[in-house]
Amino acid sequence: MLKSVLDKDFGRVGEAFQHYLTLSQPIYTGGKLKLNHEISKEKLTLSQLNLDKVRKDTILNTVQAYIDVYNATSTLGVLQKSKETLDENLKTQKELYDLRMTTKPELIEAERSVAAIEAQIVEQEGNIEVSKKHWEL
Nearest 5°: CA angle at 60, between 52 and 130? Predict the structure, then answer.
């Protein structure tokens, strides 16, 4: 069947083909086309501004995440230095308690201070991990 269609002679005399194409545009639309064009330009400008905002927000979020990690790490360093000082104080309190030069409540307070700073260090390490995860996003 395909062969019979391909073998058909389209050049026979007396056959004519006609094609028509009609385009029409109204002569006056009350400025509708011009307004639609202006609206489209404004939408393009708005889209470009939104894209610029997204880019700047991304940069801001990245910088903020970095600062959060930096602050958390710095705070951890301060807490560790404080723990060293409190450990020295605890050691001194134990020596004084053994010599009966300080009271049991003072020794317990020194132990409580060390335990509290250790809890803050663990909390700050968790904050660092959270900040790093935000940075990775």
Answer: 135
